[in-house]
Amino acid sequence: MIKKISVIGAGTMGNGIAHVFAQNNFEVNLIDVNSIQIEKALQTISKNFDRQISKGSISEEIKKQALANISTFNVIKDGVQDADLVIEAATENIDLKLKIFKEIDEAAPASAILASNTSSISITKIASVTKRSEKVIGMHFMNPVPVMKLVEIINGFTTDASVTQTIIDLSKQINKVPCVVNDYPGFIANKILMPMINEAIYSLYEGIAGVEEIDTIMKLGMAHPMGPLQLADFIGLDVCLSILNVLHEGFGNPKYAPCPLLVNIVTAGKLGVKTGEGFYTYTPGSKDIKVSERFMH
Ligand SMILES: NC(=O)c1ccc[n+]([C@@H]2O[C@H](COP(=O)([O-])OP(=O)(O)OC[C@H]3O[C@@H](n4cnc5c(N)ncnc54)[C@H](O)[C@@H]3O)[C@@H](O)[C@H]2O)c1
Predict the structure, then answer these.
(1) Which of 207, 247, 275, 290 is the most exposed place for a label (fewest CB within 10 A)?
(2) Is the overall model pTM greater than 0.90, yes or no?
(3) Is 207 left (phi over 0), alpha (psi -120 to 50) or beta?
(4) Sign of torsion, CA 222 223 227 231?
(5) Ligand 1 nearest atom to the CA of residue 31, by list position
(6) pLDDT at position 287
(7) pLDDT exceeding 70 applies to what percent of the chain?
(8) What distance in Å separates the CA atoms of residue 35 and residue 190, rounded to the nearest whole number?
(9) From the CA of 250, how far away is ligand 1's center (Å)?
(10) Catalytic (active-site) positions
């Protein structure tokens, strides 16, 4: 029975994961090496609860209880000692994740399940550096976690079926919809999404259509809530490029090769919403977006 959950990384995803479990009465240890990130995460969680209160979906009392369910730590060893489940949501870097999983494996109880929220790194590879590979699994939440219903559950090559079942049940307990897939590059979400985004970027690069036209066609024609170029800006163009590289290397198939325009735009440091410019330009505090000057002509 899972009661205590340690979340490693208090960034965009970590704070959302902590929010959802705390709201559902789990005890949560939120761990980040960076104290400023922890402070920011607690503020974000509190603000997101306020939004839910103003919509009438939760009460002040639930917010108070949820915040009381969260403890914070700077050191992994201290924060995972009594965990039933550890969910790693640290920076997407393979060497870092392998180092973190070795640390968790040494410090967490032998019975604990170890999950990663990675978007693209092999769960089988992560599991291979632990002494409990049958208890390692992918738990891929979507951004923003409190809003998005899906949890893509990724079975590593050696994940035990009982572990998968525990994570399916747990996902339902927090009102999410679990979907189980196998561990191959990009899993399912990104194996399908990233080639679509890459194709949209290719269409722009080849001059077949402009930014607004591509996004409008996909929004109005396919009922997507956001066009692929705007979505790429939202995800982060560097993140899109690195996932495409994982697909390209992992399958050895040229159909996943990242578009040279994506490589250029990332090399130039235009990473989308987080840097204020990608295919569109963004102004902090404003919802207005404009097609970036460089794609106007
Ligand atoms: N952002 C998304 O849309 C999204 C969606 C699904 C999955 N993911 C995945 O979730 C993970 C986290 O992504 P994010 O967007 O939240 O990143 P982020 O950069 O917002 O946060 C990462 C956090 O990890 C912390 N960290 C780094 N090293 C650490 C260590 N050794 N111990 C503890 N904390 C450490 C950093 O201080 C930072 O606060 C990645 O694997 C990413 O691929 C991201």
Answers:
(1) 207
(2) yes
(3) left
(4) negative
(5) 33
(6) 85
(7) 100
(8) 31
(9) 22
(10) 119, 140, 152, 190
